[in-house]
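Hi again,

Forgot to attach this to my earlier email, sorry! This is the prediction with adenosine-5'-diphosphate bound. I've pasted everything inline since the attachment limit keeps bouncing my files.
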Amino acid sequence: MIELRNVGKRYGNGPASHEALRNINISIHDGEVFGVLGSSGAGKSTLVRCINLLERPTSGQVLINGVDVTNTHGKELAQLRSHIGMIFQNFSLFQQRTAIENVQFPLEVAHMPRKERVQRAEHLLELVGLQGLEQRYPAQLSGGQQQRVAIARALATDPTIMLCDEATSALDSTSTAQVLDLLQHINRTTGVTMVVITHSLQVARALCDRVAVIDGGSIVEQGPTEALFAHP
Ligand code: ADP
Ligand code: ADP
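Structure tokens for the complex follow:
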């Protein structure tokens, strides 16, 4: 379970400071797909960056499985992050590495022996439907295929939480549908908890069990997706 309790985030100090988050309260259950929906500048990325502590809240607490991690540093923070996979709008792949080298990278960092990590990377690329494309460089893959490599890389260390920041925003509608299907399949088969940032109602409806709508740094609505988007 991921809990944000009265989380606030202020960038900068004094009159030039900006309050990006205000009194955020969210509980995300194990295995669910939780959407953070809002327009550009609403505070979505800041909220999700408070979960992996790329940003520190200026007030409130972040709890993971009941443990207050708000002030975690050093080794403990690295340990915590090793259980969190991330994918981004722009895929963030290493351009000088092939697909399989990209997927192996976190396993290299974790000192997994070469033979084992090659096997695992092959297995993950097959899982995301990229068998046969292992030796391609990112520039030789479509956007949808690049995002699949990024998903395989995010899964390499077997995370319990996956943070998806506008993961389909750079993709055409066909690739978007395929990537959303893949994420749903991964959630259902592995039980990984997913936090999905999106500005798209369509993505929220297709993928998320529950959604928090954020506007101007505050949550304005929160609940099961079907209840939030039910037509009268
Ligand atoms: P979203 O992801 O919904 O587009 P962000 O969380 O990126 O929103 O940003 C929320 C607000 O905080 C915006 O007004 C943005 O300009 C501001 N902001 C984000 N990051 C920083 C930063 N590092 N320093 C100052 N202001 C920031
Ligand atoms: P799957 O269940 O998807 O087939 P596994 O969980 O069995 O994949 O993992 C495949 C290989 O990767 C195994 O050799 C396993 O020991 C190794 N492995 C899995 N997760 C990690 C991890 N977080 N760190 C190091 N090795 C891992």
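The mean pLDDT is 95. Residues 110, 112, 116, 120, 123, 157-158 surround adenosine-5'-diphosphate (ligand 2) (CB under 6 Å).

That should be everything now.

G.
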